[in-house]
Every structure is written in structure tokens, then in C-alpha cells.
Fold this protein.
Amino acid sequence: MDALIVIFITGLIGLFTGLLKKPTLNLIITLCGLAVAFALQLNYGFYKSPFANYQVLEFNVPQLYFSLLAILFTAVIVVGGFGYFKRDASHTGDYYGLLLFSLCGAICLIGFTDLFMFFLGLEILSIPIYVMVGIKKQDVLSAEASIKYFFTGAFATAILLFGIALLYGATGSFNLIEIRSLIQSGEYHTSYLLIGMLFMLGAFLFKVGAVPFHFWGPDVYQGAPEIVTAFMATVVKLAALFAFYSLFNITFQELGYFWIGALYFAIALSLFLGYLGALKQTKFKRLLAYSSISNTGYALFALLSTSHSSLASLLIFLVGYGFSTIALLTISMAISNEDDEIAAFKGIGYKHPFIGFIMLISLLSLAGIPPLTGFFGKFSLLMNAYNNHLWLVILALISSAIGAFLYLRLIVLSLTKDESDKTIALNFWQYFVLSICAIGILGGGFILAI
Amino acid sequence: MELLILPLILGLVMLILPSGWCKLVGGLGSLASLAIAIFHLMSFDPLTQVVLNSSIDKMAFGLTLNFGYDSLGLVMIMLTNAIIPLILLSNWNRELAGNKLFTALVFFMQLGLLGVFTAQDGIMFYIFWEFTLLPIFLILYWFGAKENNKVLFKFFIYTLVGSLAMLLSFIALGINAQSFAYQDLVNVQLSQKMACWVMSGFLLAFAIKIPLFPFHTWQPATYTSSPMAGTMLLSALMLKMALYGMMKWMLPLTSEGIEVMKWPVIILGAIGIVYGAVIAIKQNDIKTLFAFASISHLGLIAAGIMVFNTSAWSGAIIQIINHSLISIGLFLAADILEKRTGTRKLDELGGIAKIAPRFGFWFAAIVFAALSIPFSAGFIGEFILIKELFSFHVLIGILAVSSLILGAVYMLRSYQLSMFGPTKLTSFQDLTWNETAVFVVLSISILIIGLFSTYIIDYTAPAIRVLTAITPFNQLIIE
């Protein structure tokens, strides 16, 4: 709760200091705020908080880890986008403010114990994103993305609300623990509850971007600025996945017979449609969007297993996936790839070995090649699901071979010998961000596995 | 652990070193790793098992950081650390030798191989197994023939699919064992049906890498499009990983399924022996010829391993060593021909023995070693393997014997067409000192192994007896 307030206030300050048009000052304030929030969250429970009795948000060990990761991702994204903010100085304050507000929503979504807080968190998370996707006002694609995302998102929210209403009608409570005990006791109105839950499932699949609710993904990812794409692919996905997990795998665990079948198909389709769709793309962010659909499929494996290690697996997976995505988008920003063509990546690794190395490890991590973090994430997710869902695990392995082909093409493209004389220069912040990503990708699995 | 750390350090040092130095430092470093391996060999008692690193605590998903080796592992370590200097030496006067990226990748490759041979944990084995794919891929990609993307993609995806199947098998075993430590995995009791499934997963990975008959399609194109050192790494070391994996991991872990699975694999191996040899006879490209010859040789070893008794495995180990040495020699010879005449086509070569007698002599020595003439290591290895295949089934034995005859046909044909007959060449530079040294070392080691193969057989016997479950594991003393 304290961290949440700190982040919110920092966001407000950022919004107003944006008027001064001093991006560096803004960056420092934002980073300080995030650092304080990180420290508060790290020491959560070890100090006396004035909001200790605030029941609606509760942070236990998994919640803390996920919220720390969300804060870390945001910090890395903010730093990595600094070059971009500087060029677009009139919007810097907006970006900082909106990113932090959205992060507030993400933290609400991670710590909620109540459907009311859950809905609030989801909206706080989404509304700044609607704005940020359309922030390039002169750009047609950006406007298209914003409209698309807003309308479909609003629709999904409406369905979610309907689901919550039905759930309330069935159980008479917003509190997750109460709902769970009511479900366990069997005193509920079955069809209301089940339909409400199904609506919520649909809305969730929309938010995490899984098939069959994935259509917004490619357009929105492509239209949004890289910074926002990175934020959506990491923090938003992380928060939505965690909420998905805690709502379905904990609260609705008893009703697994009902929703696991639907989820099963969503995962199986996501695994393949994402990578197969990505094979034909020529735009980089679109490709990343499609690959993120498949990666969502992997992440959803966490919901199939009730063992407590599945959350840890999800965390490792998200560390690998998030850092890889941030690294790739930072590189895309660094080569000022305005047209977003994949062809622009040709030879950059050869020209700039550091970029080449980062491209190599981040793509290999996405492909799940050991000893990178992505491998440990996928491996432990699949291992948890092995006992009950063998066929889905086999499908996942097949799809990861397709994915490896996809990523390998990108690696090969970036490592080809390129004789043209274009130059690539990274600024200090980008070096910094890419190094952090490299640490996360190389060591994340080992650190978290211990 | 210095076995593993040294190549890692060498690889990293190569990346920062100025280009002029990396040839010398790389050569010395590889000799140092050979010295370390010899030191391990000297202080090793075959009746024991050495633990390099053991972790009592399991990590989050049952992963342990166990490393160690038995005598089989040590033979493979020794082989790796002896082959790497030879590869660097045969590369010495080529342009790649001064390339620091290349030298670094060779050392990373060595790290991966040593990791595979020392891993005592299923997931560590898998990690290093996959890790070897990266350096070899980059070597082939950066330093191989131009426009070889298609070939490389096939190679990478093919082997990756196999590895994923192996990962599934490891997960299946690990779930049962609640751990991935080697001994825990061995102790898992599986039903025969389950064991067959698990073994199929392993087999897909190993059969693709070896490669066994229907899974070999990646191999010839990959060999021909890669630089000499890449081909050497692939054929002399990387394929041996799969054979080692069969002996150390696949069969002990899923011994319940061996009775069912031995037939298909041995039949595939036998088909591979004949198929590889027949295709090799018709080849015009000398590198492709050697690639198919390699399919034939390795089919024999794989079939022998699946017979699953101590004697066949002794033969397999000798033949593994022998094949590594021979393939270094053959691909060096092929590269010498290609570099100095500009072609690999047999019908465009000829008459070189007259111009370059030293090359003619040493190439002949390697060719004869590949024919497994008596006193060479191949003679012992093939003899034991064929004997065991005969006692397994007469028909299989007959197919296996044909490898000797057909081998003589394609090997002598390749030698005759390239070295004798009329020539269009006016000059051909004879062997340089480093090439001569490689050939001499190879020939002498093949001869020594051929004469004293009982030492290797006795040396590896305790490990083999444990792996084939004749003596229980606890009779080995853990050091």
C-alpha cells in the first residue's frame, strides 16, 4: 500500500514537472520514486505501515515478488526509453505520469483480495495505456491502435463487469476468500456462478492476449510507441497473468472441471497461432506481438497446475520473457527503426557486437535454449503441467520448435555481414538497460532456481 | 572443476585478446586443457567414480549441480581435450586460425562437450547438450560456405526437435524420481511401455545427432557447407556426444525397455551401414563421400551399443575413439585437396601423389586406418562390434560385415581418383609442418590404440559393467 502511494505521488509530480520540459529531471524523480517504492515493497511487513489495516490489498511472498518485478520492469523501461522521451520533450511528463499510474493499477491487480479492488486495478491499469497507445497523435497507425484497443478493451471490461455482477448475484460477496469458501461449501447457484466465471475468463483471455481474443494484439503493439509496447508486453501482461492466476487457480480452483477445458483450448491455439502468424510478418513489433501470443500460451500453463511451484515457474518465465522483450524493443529504438521493418535489423549484430550479443541471448531465451532464463521458465512450467496435461506439454514442445525457427531467422538476420555504412550508436542509458537485461536473461534462471 | 572452467576462461580471453595473439594463446590453452585431462587420467583409478562437484541441496525444480565422471566419461574427456588441440593445429596455417571469434567459439564448444561428458544430472546434461549447438551453429554460420542458411536452419531445427523430445523424456523420468540427479534417475522403476516411450524420446535426440539412417538428411549438406574445423568438431566430437549419451544416459535409465527397442535401432543401424556405404560409393564430392562414410561407420557403433553387453560396448568405445581420429584425418585431407586445387570433385582431381608424395603417403595411412586394416584401432573396434552383431543375429552380422567390403570400395576409390591417374595440375604444395604433425599424431595414435587396445578395454570395463547393470552401482567406490 505504501509503495502504491509513493508511485502514485511520483506519477503526479512527474506529470507536473513535465511542464518544465526537462526530461533528465523527470527521469531522476521517477527513478527515485520507483526506488523508494521498490525498497518499501522489499521490506514489506518489516516496518510499521500506517495502512496495515487496509484489508483490500494484501501482499504475501508471491505478490511481493511479482510487484517487485513489475516495478523493476517499469524502471528499466523508463530508463531505456529516455532517448525517445528526450526527442519527444513535449510529452515526456505525460509518459512518466501515465506509466506510473498504470503501474499503480498493476500493483492493485497483483495484491487484490476483493473483486472491487480487482476491477479498480484493472481500470487504473488500462486507461493510461489507452492514452499512451494513441499518444503519437500525427500517426495514423497509432490512432488506429488506440481506437481499436479502447473499444475492444471497453467491451472486454463490460463483459468482465457482467461476470462480476453474476458472481455477486450467485455468492453475495466480493471478497475472494468468502467466495472461495462458498464455492467449497457447495452453497451457490451453479449456473449464475459458472456463467459469471466464463465471462471473466473471456475478459482475462482478452487482457493477456490469448487466442481467441488476440486480434487486438498485433495492431496495438505495432501502433504504439516502443516504450508503450514494452510496457504492455511486460508489466500489463505480468499483472493480468497474476490476477488470472490468483482468481482462477485459487478462488475458482474447485470449479476447475469447468474452466480448465476452455483454457486448454485457448492455450493449445495460442501456442500455435502466435508463432505461425509471426512467421509471415515483415514488421518487427507485429512479429513481437504474435510471438507474445504464443508466450502467453506458455505462461498460462501455470494455471493448469495447482502445485505451489507453478507461481515460481511463472515468475521465472516472466523474468526471461520480459527482459528479452525489453531488450529487443530497446534495440529497435536504438537503431531508430521508424518504419518498424524487420529488414532494418539486418547486420546490426555484426556491426555492433554488443547489440549482436544481446539480440542473440534474448532471442535464444525466447526460444527456450538453455542455459538462459527463458529455458528455465518454460521447463518448469511444462514440468508442473506434465502429470495432468501430457498432450498439451507435447504440443508446447512442438510449438517451441516452430518458435525456435522464427527466432533463429531473426538471429541470423542480425548477424549477417553487412557492408553498408550506416552507423549504430547506443547512448549510455541504452547500454545500461541492455546490460541489466543481459543479466536478467543470463542469470535469472539460476538465481531464482536456488 | 578446472576441466570446465579452463575452456570457459580461454573462450572469454580469446574475445578480448588482440587478434595477433589468439593463435598462440589458443594453441597453448588447448594444450593446457590436454595436460589437465592427462593429469586427471594419471590420478584416476578405473574402479572409482570421481565427483567434481556435488550439491546436496536441490534447486527449485529438482535440478542439482552434480558433476563427475567414471572411466567412460574420462575417456570421452580425454578424447575431447586431445582432439581440440589437433583441430587447432590442423587449422594453424589457414586464415581462420587468427580469428579470435572462431577460436573463442571452439573453446565454448569444448566447454559444452566437457559439460556433457561430466554432467551427473539430467538437466545439466540437457543444458550442455543444447549449449553445444550454439557455438557450432555460429561457426558454421560465420565461417562456413556462403548462402548456407537453409542448410543451417535444417540442422538447427532438426537437432532442436530431437533435443525437445529428450527434454520430455527427462521430465517424465524426473517427475517420477522427484530429482534429476543421475543416480536417482537410474533408480526409477518404469513399466516396459513407459520405458519404451521414454527411450524413444532419447532415441530421437541421439538418432538425429549420430545420425541414424532415416534421420541423417541434415548431415551431408551441413558437412559440406561448413569450414574444415566445423566439420571436424561435428564429426569427431559432437556426434560422439550422442553415442556417449546412449551409453551413459539412455540405456541405463530406461533399461526396462531395451528388449523391445533394441530391434528397431539395430535394424536401422544395419540399414545405415549399408545405405551410407552404397551412397558413398557413388559420390563425386569427396567431402560428401566422407560424410556418408561417417553415417556407415556410426551406424555400426550405434547398432553395437544397442546389443547391450560389455564386449560390444568395449568395441564401441574403441571405435568411437578411432572414428574421431580418422575423421579428423579424412576431413583434413579433403580440405587440403579443396584448398589447393579449388575443387572437391573426384573427377577433376587426380595424380596428386606424384607431385606431393608426403601428402600421398599420410593420406594413404589414414585411408588404411579407415579401412580397419589389422594393427589399426579400427580393426579391433570393428571386429568386436561385428562379432557381437553376428551373435545377436546372423543377418545383421552379414549386413555389418558388408561395411568392411563396401568401405574398402569407397575409400580406395576416393583415394585412387584423387591421388593417382593422370593429372591436370602442375603444382601442388605438399604438406606444411602442421598438417604433417597432425597426420603423424593421428597415425601413431591409431597404431598405438590398435596395438594396446586391451588397456582401454580393461580401463573402461568397470564403468561399462555398472552401466550395463552387471555390477550394481555401489560397488564402485566414490572418490
Chain B has one domain: 2-478. The first strand of chain B starts at residue 48 and ends at 53.
